[in-house]
Amino acid sequence: MIAASVILGEGVVIHHPDLVNLYGCSVGAGSRIGTFVEIQKNAIIGQNCKISSHSFICEGVTIEDGVFVGHGVMFTNDTYPRAVNSGGELLSDGQWDVVPTLVKRRAAIGSNATILPGLTIGEGAQIGAGAVVTKDVPDYAIVAGVPAKIIGRVHDAPASIISSRRV
Known about the structure:
The protein has one helix and 20 strands. With 167 residues, it is mainly beta. It has one domain: UDP N-Acetylglucosamine Acyltransferase, domain 1 (3 Solenoid). The strands form four sheets. The protein has an eight-stranded mixed sheet, with no helix packed on it. A six-stranded parallel sheet has the order 1-4-7-10-13-16, with no helix packed on it. Strands 3-6-9 form a three-stranded parallel sheet, with no helix packed on it. A hairpin with a 4-residue loop joins strand 19 and strand 20. The longest helix has 6 residues. The chain is globular. 34% of the residues are buried. The model has no long low-confidence stretch (mean pLDDT 92).
């Protein structure tokens, strides 16, 4: 479902509009959204991004231009999530704070990575598949593991690998 509250830039491709859940978000021109993706209210996707199938982009996430999000990537937006308050009553939208996350331009996030709230993923950074990102990632860093740790720099990769990447 694509709600009427969604702002789509020119040339956005949503491969299976009936198999996504987008509401209250904006998606920049030229971006592509895969099947079974959810993008919540107040999330911002930049231009020329690729959001692969089964990914979840929650409220408070800003993704700048040219970012790749692999399959099954999960963003979070609450440091201490709870379903109920101390009295056992179900919490509503206004009873918790959204902790924003920023993914800077041309970053790439591998499949099944989990991004904890309140982080910045630097420009051109590379997040390994299955990583659990618990700290800010510097520009052009390559991180992997649980928890994710810096294992290299994108600039250290052979030029042929960097230039062959499509964003």
